[in-house]
Amino acid sequence: KPLMGLVMREFRGKVDGKVVAEKLMRAIEERLNEAP
How large is the average pLDDT for residues 23-35? Predict the structure, then answer.
């Protein structure tokens, strides 16, 4: 049971990291699009 919680926490961390990376990439793309 504790192992399952550890796996879920690790998985959630990876998903959160991916979401943050996607938001960061989107923000960078918007900045580049704004530039003349």
Answer: 94
Q: Is 6 exposed, middle or buried (0-12, 13-18, 19+ CB in 10 A)?
A: exposed
In terms of phi and psi (left: phi > 0; alpha: psi -120 to 50; beta: otherwise), the region of 35 is beta
Global pTM exceeds 0.90: no
Domain boundaries, the chain: 1-36
Cα–Cα distance between 32 and 19 in angstroms, integer? 20
Question: Quick one: which H or E segment has residue 14?
Answer: helix 2-34
Using the CB atoms, write b or e for 7-29: b if 16+ within 10 Å: eeeeeeeeeeeeeeeeeeeeeee
